[in-house]
Amino acid sequence: MPLGLTMIHPGLVSITFRKLTPRQVVEAAAAAGLAGIEWGGDIHVPHGDLTRAAEVRRLTADAGLTVPSYGSYYHAGASEDAGLAFARVLDTARELGAPVIRVWAGNKGSAQADAAYRARVTDDCCRIAALAAEAGIVVASEYHGNTLTDTDPSTAAFLTAVGHTNFRTYWQPRVGSTVSDDLAGLQQALPYLAHLHVFHWQPDHTRRPLAEGAARWLPYLELAATAPGDRFAMLEFVANDDPAVLAAEAATLRRWLRTLACG
Fold first, then answer.
1. Residue 47 CB contacts under 8 Å (≥ 6 apart), including other chains
2. Of 164, 89, 171, 73, residue with least CA distance to 123
3. CA-CA distance, 242 to 239, in Å (whole number)?
4. Domain contains 187
């Protein structure tokens, strides 16, 4: 790999295949030559189910894969009051062996968020980042609609306001955005970058083969590789949620990452 670039590993987000069992997800990821799985907290490893978390951790390790993160459904500033304690999410991530917990930056879009709401979400992110740090686990938000990370300016303000050394972000392209806008957003996120979610959608959200997105994704990956620290680029969602297309999607991603590594 060229000097100054770090390693990006190919992975899979388990919610890509919600209808599969954890064992089937592991088998599919391993057969596709992927290196790790981000396990979701809704179906495959529910929040608080420590027995399931331990089982999935063993399944993943036995297949020679790693667990780069736990994809929780914790909404900062909202979930605690709604009955999902972050302590339960943290215990699950610890049992799963996940070094990163993915959370959502609230449950309200930036256009509807006043200063008090932003402060509540920000304060909760600082709180959970501190709690996770005690367990040696990083907390990271993701780019998502109806949260404070729904635009690049709002995301920048949010990450700056949190300002906790144990709080980071995932990155993914904005559906319908231009490559130049995406690169500007990614450049902004580099100091906080945890992992990437990888997909190729048309502006109307039609899912297309990843190979068609080479002109976009190769520049994204090249820029992401300049951020310090190794990370995963994880496939998230495929056409028709069809496991049969995973092999081709993974082959595309692995080919791009090999190209990046060879310079």
1. 41, 72, 73, 74, 84, 88, 89, 92
2. 164
3. 6
4. yes
pLDDT (average), residues 17-34: 98
Q: What are phi and psi of 247, to 5 degrees?
A: -55, -45
Whether residue 2 lies inside any domain: the answer is no
User: Residue 5 has what pLDDT?
Assistant: 55
CB within 8 Å of 147: residues ≥ 6 apart: 75, 104, 105, 106, 107, 108, 109, 110, 141
User: Containing domain of residue 129, as a range?
Assistant: 8-262
Residue 44 belongs to a domain with what CATH number? Answer: 3.20.20.150
User: pLDDT for 189-214, tens place per residue?
Assistant: 999 999 999 999 999 999 999 999 99
Residue 3 in any domain: the answer is: no
The domain tally of the chain equals: 1
DSSP element (H, E) containing 96: helix 86-96
Neighbouring C-alpha atoms within 13 Å toward the C-beta of 166:
18
| Dist CA 102 CA 197 (whole Å) | 12
CA dihedral 246, 182, 260, 3 (to 10 degrees): -150
Count of CB atoms situated within 10 Å of the CB of 262: 8
Give residue 210's Cα distance to chain centre.
17
Which residues lie below 8 Å from residue 16, measured CB to CB, with a gap of 6+? 235, 236, 237, 238, 241, 246
Whether residue 251 is contained in a domain is answered as yes
What does the pLDDT look like over 148-179, one tens digit per residue?
999 999 999 999 999 999 999 999 999 999 99
